[in-house]
Design goal:
The protein has 15 helices and 16 strands. By secondary structure, it is α+β, with helices and mostly antiparallel strands. Strands 1-5-6-11-10-9-7-8 form an eight-stranded mixed sheet, sandwiched between helices. It binds histidyl-adenosine monophosphate.
Length: 420
């Protein structure tokens, strides 16, 4: 029996969980103002969904999926991302038949068999949103504005937006040929993986992390110079909207993203405080995916933010580090062991009334209980027992001032509940 969590996974203990809760609450608040409703899809899906949706030649499908056969001999995969499942749900529930666009968000774990390192896990969490059923460039801009608003709400100061367009099935093949022609003389100096990418999916080669490949692709032509009229106009409108909203970005010609479903706009959100795994979010438009999944031709756009990375970035900026251990409003202490069942009863009554109450579970002396109350930062101690109890009274000590007073046992809940 190994008492350690699997490699690439981690536990979130209560102190840190308080920060997660704060982020989740901010997400729900912000996304509500943008008009997004929550969707919760299963943690696993048919493997084929991701093979088709994300693309057979992508790293995720080739090397990173947690795929297994269930007892009924079906191939299932723990979801590596949220977009394909949301599209599947959109088609399955015929959401295309209602008012468009359909705007959805999700918060939950994703699974990728990647090599763990700082900011990279095998189970990680995403906050994501998808808008399906509109090709309006205003939605592309909204998908950048929304995570930025969330970061701001959380107090993250330093985020950079990288922006690109990867065109559509009309203009991308032209660029692909240009890229091949440009790289042909250097082909034998590219890494082995890039040599196969050259044949199968040359755009992906721009994403390679091998330093030599990065150098060899430094001066490739920009896809922006090859966009068709429609893609060019769309991209221009996205930029106009971003400018108007005061959102600054940098054009990054090598930004292609690791999924085959993207068309037109792609973007990444980078924190400069994070080292190698510096993307705190990313997304883009995927106008062909709904049809690919068997639905009607439907344009769509979305993004996802990495929860762990966002929290790491906040920490690196010295934000959101307050510990989340709540302090009891009252610690209920027993004068003698005989008074303990009264303590149990009073504690329960307080909790039912919504008052955070703590008690001793070790039968300790009154002095030790007072010390424990202090350590936990309790605002009050209710001392139960002794001759006060016989008179139906409880001693209530204010831990800040040290002042003590007697309160009728029957009124303790009332007094603590409304803060008197
Ligand atoms: P992605 O760029 O693969 O996009 O992931 C989004 C974010 O999830 C990343 O920017 C990063 O913060 C976080 N992330 C990814 N992998 C890991 C990992 N192994 N450990 C920790 N954090 C990680 C998507 O998943 C797309 N589905 C986004 C999207 C939605 N595009 C359109 N709609």
């Amino acid at each position: 029996m190994r008492a350690t969590a699997p490699r690439g996974t981690r536990d979130v203990l209560p102190e840190e969980a308080a920060r997660w809760q704060r982020l989740e609450a901010a997400t729900r608040r912000v996304f509500h103002t943008f008009g997004y409703g929550e969707i919760r899809t299963p943690m696993f899906e048919h493997t084929e969904l991701f093979q088709r949706g994300i693309g057979e030649t992508t790293d995720i499908v080739q090397k990173e999926m947690y795929t297994f056969m269930d007892r009924g001999d079906r191939s299932l995969t723990l979801r590596p991302e949220g977009t394909a499942p949301v599209v599947r749900a959109y088609v399955e529930h015929k959401l295309y038949a209602g008012v468009q666009p359909v705007k959805l968000y999700y918060i939950g774990p994703m699974f990728r068999y990647e090599r763990p390192q700082a900011g990279r896990y095998r189970q990680f969490h995403q906050i994501g949103a998808e808008a399906l059923g509109s090709s309006d460039p205003a939605l592309d801009a909204e998908m950048i504005a929304m995570p930025i608003t969330l970061y701001e709400e959380m107090g993250l100061r330093d985020v950079r937006v990288l922006l690109n367009s990867i065109g559509c099935p009309v203009c991308r093949p032209r660029y692909r040929e240009q890229l091949r022609a440009h790289l042909a003389p250097r082909l034998d100096r590219l890494c082995a993986t890039c040599q196969t990418r050259y044949e199968r999916n040359p755009l992906r080669l721009l994403d390679c992390k091998v330093p030599q490949c990065r150098e060899l692709t430094e001066d490739v032509p920009s896809i922006l110079d090859f966009l068709c009229d429609e893609c060019g106009q769309h991209f221009g409108a996205v930029r106009t909207h971003l400018d108007r909203m005061g959102l600054t970005y940098r054009l990054e010609k090598r930004l292609v993203r690791g999924f085959d479903y993207y068309t037109k706009t792609v973007f990444e959100l980078i924190s400069p405080h994070l080292g190698a795994q510096d993307a705190v979010g990313g997304g883009g438009r995927y106008d062909g995916l709904v049809a690919e999944m068997g639905g009607p031709d439907t344009p769509a756009v979305g993004f996802a933010v990495g929860v762990e990375r966002l929290l790491l970035a906040l920490e690196a900026e010295g934000q959101n580090t307050e510990d989340g251990v709540a302090r009891p409003r009252v610690y209920v202490a027993a004068i003698s062991p005989d008074d303990r069942s009264q303590v149990v009863e009073l504690t329960y009554r307080l909790r039912r009334a919504g008052v955070y109450a703590e008690m001793d579970y070790a039968g300790r002396s009154l002095r030790a209980q007072m010390r424990a109350a202090g350590q936990r930062g309790a605002a009050h101690v209710a001392i139960v027992g002794g001759e006060e109890a016989q008179r139906g009274m409880v001693r209530l000590r204010d831990m800040n001032t040290g002042a003590e007073r007697e309160v009728a046992l029957a009124r303790v809940v009332e007094v603590l509940a409304d803060g008197r």
